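Before relying on records like the one below, remember that each one covers exactly one chain. Contacts with other chains, cofactors or solvent are not represented anywhere in the record.
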Amino acid sequence: MRVTCPLFLVRRTYGSCGRQGAAAAPAAVRLLRGMLRGAAAGAAGCTTLDAVGYLDMVLRGRGPSSTPKATVERLSQVVHVPVPGPPDVRENRIAALGALTGMTTGAAMGATLGLATAAGWRPRTAVLTATAGVLALIGTNGPMTVLRVTDPRTWSASDWVADIVPHVAYALVTTAVLKGLAPEARSAGAAARGPQWWCEAVRLRLTP
């Protein structure tokens, strides 16, 4: 038994390009989704950055960086908002705020990239990765430099390597996750399995 596939029914369901025929999302919704995708990608990149940093601590036996805590303390002085508590409690809060600041920065950088791509920016993967790396470097080292917590001009070669390598890892993972969560990436499989694939599957199943 041969079956003729009703392509008009499939087109009504999937549209002429093999995708589900739904109205395009409003611009605000599209931008919000892009921001959320970017924030998720940035969070994944931040996790990778931390993992690389901890691995460096294991390999070299060094202690954790004191710059996040120093940045929080300096920022507290600048904005005149003291961190409350007795000395030991205050020290723990400053350490936690330093870690949270890094996580927030990583997610914010990813959200910025997600917003840009949702707005229509379509760079090559290498350009997107380089942009993510530069944003991460500026987002983390910029405030510390402005607040005079550190001065990159005084860093040694090993200091630069220890700073750049985790940020490169952040950029690679953030880019990979952001591109993997992009609508065009998710719909690539669906597009490949459009009306023609559906009809071929039905024909092979029903043809004796």
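Residues 7-23 have pLDDT under 50 and may be disordered.
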